[in-house]
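User: Here's a protein and a ligand (NAP). What would the complex look like?
Assistant: Let me lay out the input and then the predicted complex.
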Amino acid sequence: MTQTVIAYGAQSQAAAISQISIERREVTPADISIDIMYCGICHSDIHQVNNDWGGAIYPIVPGHEIIGKVTNIGNQVTKFKVGDIVGVGVMVGSCGNCGSCKDNFEQYCEQGFIGTYSSKDPKHDEITYGGYSENIVVDEKFVLHVPTNLALNAVAPLLCAGITTYSPLRNWNVKSGDTVGVIGLGGLGHMGIKLAKAMGAHVVMITSSPNKAKDAKSLGADAVIISKNSEDMQNNANKFDILLNTVPVSHDLNPYLSLLKRDGTMILVGAIEPFKAGELNGFNLIFGRKRLGGSLIGGLKETQEMLDFCGENNIIPDVEMITASEINNAYKRMLNNDVKYRFVIDFTKK
Ligand code: NAP
Ligand code: ZN
């Protein structure tokens, strides 16, 4: 039987988030039904509600940083049992057959992965609805084990902010002795600091907000650069092996490229609106053999590895807990750069 559950979503482009009812599918043999306890708010939720990237399907129920308890399992489920605490991130499906899926990079599925919300799921013939809801039904392949030693409410943002910063840091082989700059101190940026630090790097926060310098240091940054201060930027030219750029709006990339050492790489994870990245001066790459790259969340295997790494190293996001009625206000605060450093919706409080 399908299940009617309370959710929080937007009925149309840029509409406020309000309470709605949605249907969750019957648990099929490979499925797990999860009562949601906590869901983080990612800036991608705001982009999607506003249809910044095009293709949003309304009503939209955002939320892809989900922690919850297993309440029911299908008869072919092997990895989980009723009562387990589990996580769900940005994906709930992929083709499973292409080169990327076979290499455990489901996020780069050649057919396109099925997003946890606002996606068409052909396998189950439905539109997906995300974690701003009481319950979700997900194929067990896309469900993660959660370390038991970490504070559960704070673990939720690892499912997107955590893996999106962990994956490029690992892919570009960040290690002791490297200098890593994290651009933008929000949800992703604060995880970037913590994870790069745990990998042994010298970590520098590059922020547009001078008032965040103290927090950046207490989160683990060894130094802070104020990106609006051109003298500060010039003094740090040619210093960085890796730059992790989390800025969520169009901006000029050229000043940041000057910070890279020879052979350094700037990795874009902030979802700059299509075709609005400004003019890239090719000489900023050519002189110094520099590289500009991008990275999308992480595959399931790597997401589990990241959760285990955070468990072993006691790494959790800094969160501000809210109730579902406060989501609209949280969006406003994120757009005003006022997030410390991830909002998490608490569904355990009714
Ligand atoms: P967030 O919590 O809102 O933080 C973004 C930070 O960027 C802000 O705190 C601010 O830091 C900086 N910033 C904001 N506006 C700026 C501006 N006009 N100029 C310069 N800096 C500015 O956002 P988030 O949740 O971390 O997400 C960041 C971006 O990553 C979003 O675009 C999101 O969609 C994207 N994302 C991508 C992936 C992926 O797989 N690639 C996954 C998740 C999210 P300062 O005050 O320190 O400058
Ligand atoms: Zn996200």
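Summary: Residues 161-294 form a domain with the Rossmann fold fold (CATH 3.40.50.720).
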